[in-house]
Amino acid sequence: MEHARGIQLHQVWPAMSLKQQVACTGAIVRNIKQIAAIDFHTYGSLYFDNVKVDSAMKQPFKPGYVIGPHCGTTFWDCEVREPRYYSSAPPNRGPWSDLAPYCNALIDAGISRIPPLNDAMNAKTSYYGVVAEHNRLLKFSRDVASKLIEDSRVQKAATPILLHQDLHKRNIYVSDEDPTIITDLIDWQSSSINPAFMHVNEVPDFAARDSTPDDGVLSKSSPSGDNARLCNQAFVAGVRLLVPKLCASWELDADIVRFFEYCHRTYRDGAAIIRQVLIDLANRWEQLALADPCPYPSPNSEELFAHNEEYKALENAQELKQFVTSRLNIASDGWVPADAWKETIEDHKRLYEQFLEGMSEEELKEIWPFDKPSDVEV
């Protein structure tokens, strides 16, 4: 394995002029163009043809390469504090030759996150919803997905495309002499071939329009004000001009995009989110000119009231998480740079104790987005 050449863009971005930042954004888009220009006809991941994978799970591509199982974390039991349970939905990692089996795999991935009724992991925060409700919502989600993929607009936006899954400034290296020249991109391990619409809401941090980068890490190098707006405009214009596969997916209705984004994450994010997505789709089904009635039945007034209460609680928890990650300058999943670990742990402890002044520890544990500070090793 070779060392990345140059210096992290994250380190030099604050000192770059607006002209340099815009030029660098354009250079990154041209790199995206090179990758996205490769035509695929299968969803999965790209491997050398000598990879030790069952031949039934390999599809030929170009000489020396095959398409094999999807290596994204969505389909694997590899995330901290998020075990998988495959008794109800066996691993379904592809490759998939068309959209229907890919979408079925998304739902299977969602089911695999749900623990058995008697499992200790079932002790989630109350607003996440009970196991039975997650299973019910995923059943409806499978039916809704099967209808959506029949629509020509969804099919047009589902072109198989290979993109870097985590294209933020810490993974981009630039020349020491000229920061507008890209020398290397790192952290490719989860990059896979997905329907283009799965990338609609992925905006790199250097092109984010607000102060919260896509990787969830706030820093002095996060774009803000006019610089952020102009870098975002440069990114959008560049993609529209140079990456037509991705650009076409931007035309897909936002509620449809949100469905595919959240349908496999119910037990990670909470039942209320996918329920809200399904309600929004059901309410607009005819307006969107989608075929046949929506498979998801609209809730009655009593069910809707209960949902709204649950959804509001979940929104409050998300706002708290955003506040905590911002104050601690960490990623949304709790990732902390090694050189900031001790300082962050101390800041986390102080912030937790400040919140304890206004509520009981049991109440705070119910909504706190990370482990209790005393449970974290320094």
Give a brief description:
The chain has 378 residues and is mainly alpha-helical.
What does this entry look like structurally?
With 378 residues, this protein is mainly α. The protein contains 13 helices and eight strands. It has a three-stranded antiparallel beta sheet. A hairpin with a 7-residue loop joins strand 6 and strand 7. The longest helix has 28 residues. The protein is globular, with a radius of gyration of 22 Å.
Topology:
Blueprint: E1 7-8, H1 9-12, H2 18-36, E2 45-48, E3 59-60, E4 65-68, H3 99-112, H4 131-148, H5 152-156, E5 160-162, E6 172-174, E7 182-185, E8 193-195, H6 225-242, H7 244-249, H8 254-262, H9 266-269, H10 271-284, H11 301-328, H12 341-356, H13 361-367
Antiparallel strand pairs: 1-6, 2-4, 3-4, 5-8, 6-7
Helix pairs in contact: 2-6, 3-4, 4-10, 8-10, 10-11
